[in-house]
């Protein structure tokens, strides 16, 4: 079946095991979706301690019902959202996999949503094509193109639930994993996982493994199954530019008191050129280049960026002559948001006291959070600003025309990239090829960020990413959604990976058939 953007779907190889998993999933669709919708009704902001604990308790109960021996992993003073741990031991297994997803979600502005973000609703497709809300008919299988709309429907409760449903499917088929499986569900990934390092150190023995498999992110635009070997790093930086000590009437004081919003706009504009490249000195220095295998993998990926540009309503990409995969392997600078006074019906004739922006710095292998922050601070100073990490004093205001407070948000981390020739990576890829055949995509780095650097740095285990969601899922934004066919495919993929055989590298891909 053709998937989004008119690009053909992926293919898979039928075996007795994969057929049994698919049939069980098909006959239990609505039972699974009932449980998943209930999970999505729980608001899950990591900064809401009561709500996130409610999610952790619900997840504990879901895992307990499945016999996965759940535990809450707490930081030393219990101040952070807990990770939820579980395990499924396989008799005689010689290898161990940790399967990771996160149960927290991004903030929401309900006024921007077409429906309540905490009340899951169904539509027949994308909102811009099929805006009407529909109900599931539990007497027949659901159309795989239908979409479920709710916060975290794709990012990343989809990963959590696909993992749990895969254990259901395996047990129903009378199958057990061929590796010991440990589950780690993060409760603050969307805040940058600031406590994951502490949790990994406190529970180092419990979380030891041959590899961590990360279930998060969207699959390739082609819809094909994908194994990703790395992620960008991430750091958020808050910038405040100061104006007068009190808000002023813009008629009485315009042309006299400088407006901090305009100054901030000029400062931000100085950070990027018309070619889309960051103009901050040294921004691209020290990048670890892709190796031969990684370049080969990029070249083998299907490319239909013309269709993507049409779908996004864009005439051209920001970095002319640089493909999307190539741009993902470069550090970036994005503006998450800008705030100064009000707009629209709430606008007032005022010169505000300050203007604020939050920057999102994406890092690639070779970058460090401290290094990129240092370059950013030097650039701001070079634009004539006194840079502080606090509000200015009266004396500082009197002696400096341009003042900026710049603070690094907690939770940043470097990029991570696992070598593509590791034996465990080849084995995971072989397990996925029992479904995908030769259509499996191997990707050096995905555009999003996850705390994989810390996982490898502390545990010593390599990390691999298995994305599940549809590419146009609106993650982090309003009207987040999950195409249900991608959920079914994710369950099948995770079941196959849990069955990772010791001899996976000796297997050859089988003949392929079209998947849903």
Considering the chains and any ligands shown, give keywords for the structure.
seven-stranded mixed β-sheet; 516 residues; disordered C terminus; disordered N terminus; globular; six-stranded mixed β-sheet; single chain; 23 strands; alpha/beta; 20% strand
Question: Could you write a compact summary of the structure shown?
Answer:
It contains 15 helices and 23 strands.
Structural class: alpha/beta
Global outline = globular
Number of helices: 15
Strand content of the residues, in percent? 15-25%
Q: Into which percent range does the helicity of residues fall?
A: 25-40%
Largest sheet: 7 strands, mixed
In terms of per-residue confidence, which ranges show pLDDT below 50 for 5 or more consecutive residues?
1-12, 504-516
| Overall radius of gyration | 24 Å
Distance between the termini: 6 Å
Q: Write down the overall mean pLDDT.
A: 93
Topology, number of strands: 23
């Amino acid at each position: 079946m053709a998937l989004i953007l008119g690009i053909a779907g992926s293919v898979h190889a039928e075996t007795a095991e994969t057929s049994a998993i698919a049939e069980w999933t098909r006959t239990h669709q609505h039972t699974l979706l009932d449980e998943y919708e209930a999970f999505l009704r729980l608001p899950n902001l990591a900064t809401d301690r009561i709500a996130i604990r409610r999610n952790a308790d619900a997840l504990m109960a879901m895992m307990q019902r499945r016999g996965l021996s759940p535990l809450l992993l707490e930081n030393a003073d219990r101040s952070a959202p807990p990770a939820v741990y579980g395990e499924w031991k396989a008799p005689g297994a010689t290898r161990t996999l940790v399967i990771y997803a996160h149960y927290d979600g991004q903030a929401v502005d309900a006024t921007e949503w077409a429906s309540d973000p905490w009340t899951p609703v169904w539509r027949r497709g994308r909102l811009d094509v099929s805006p009407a809300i529909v109900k599931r008919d539990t007497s027949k299988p659901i159309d795989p193109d239908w979409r479920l709309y709710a916060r975290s429907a794709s990012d990343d409760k989809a990963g959590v639930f696909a993992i749990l449903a895969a254990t259901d499917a395996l047990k129903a088929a009378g199958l057990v994993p061929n590796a010991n499986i440990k589950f780690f569900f993060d409760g603050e990934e969307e805040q940058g996982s600031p406590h994951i390092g502490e949790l990994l150190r406190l529970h180092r023995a419990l979380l030891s493994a041959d590899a961590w498999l990360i279930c998060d992110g969207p699959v390739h635009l082609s819809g094909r199954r994908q194994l990703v070997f790395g992620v960008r790093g991430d750091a958020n930086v808050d910038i405040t530019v100061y104006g007068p000590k009190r808000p002023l009437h813009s008629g009485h004081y315009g042309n006299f008191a400088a407006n901090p919003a305009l100054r901030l706009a000029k400062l931000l504009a100085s950070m990027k050129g018309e070619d889309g490249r960051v103009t901050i000195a040294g921004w691209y220095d020290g990048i670890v280049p892709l190796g031969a295998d990684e370049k080969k993998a990029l070249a083998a990926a299907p490319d239909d960026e013309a269709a993507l540009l049409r779908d996004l309503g864009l005439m051209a990409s920001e970095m002319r002559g640089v493909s999307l995969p190539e741009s993902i392997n470069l550090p970036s600078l994005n503006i998450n948001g800008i705030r100064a006074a009000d707009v629209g019906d709430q606008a007032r004739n005022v010169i505000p006291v300050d203007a604020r922006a939050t920057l999102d710095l994406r890092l690639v292998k070779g970058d460090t959070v401290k290094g990129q922050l240092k370059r950013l601070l030097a650039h701001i100073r070079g634009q004539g600003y006194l840079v502080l990490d606090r509000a200015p004093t009266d004396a500082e205001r009197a002696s400096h025309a341009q003042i900026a407070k710049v603070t690094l948000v907690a939770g940043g981390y470097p990029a991570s990239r696992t070598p593509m020739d590791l034996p465990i990576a080849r084995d995971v890829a072989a397990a996925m090829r029992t479904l995908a055949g030769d259509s499996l995509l191997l990707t050096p780095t995905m555009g999003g960020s996850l705390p994989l650097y810390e996982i490898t740095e502390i545990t010593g285990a390599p990390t691999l990413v298995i994305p599940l969601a549809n590419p146009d899922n609106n993650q982090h934004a309003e009207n987040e959604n999950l195409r249900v066919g991608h959920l079914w495919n994710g369950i099948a993929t995770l079941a196959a990976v849990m069955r990772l055989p010791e001899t996976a590298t000796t297997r050859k891909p089988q003949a392929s058939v079209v998947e849903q």
